[in-house]
Amino acid sequence: MKLRILVVDDEKTIADLVGIYLRNEGYEVTIAYTGADAASLILSREFDLAILDVMLPDIDGFELLRTIRADHTYPVIMLTARDAPADKIEGLSLGADDYVVKPFRPLVLVARVKAQLRRYTSYGSRDEQGSRIISINGLEINPDAHSVTVDGKEVRCTPIEYSILLHLAENRGRVVPVEDLFRAVWNEEFMPGSNNTIMVHIRHLREKIGDDAQNPRFIKNIWGVGYTIEG
Question: Is the pTM of this model over 0.85?
Answer without folding.
Answer: no
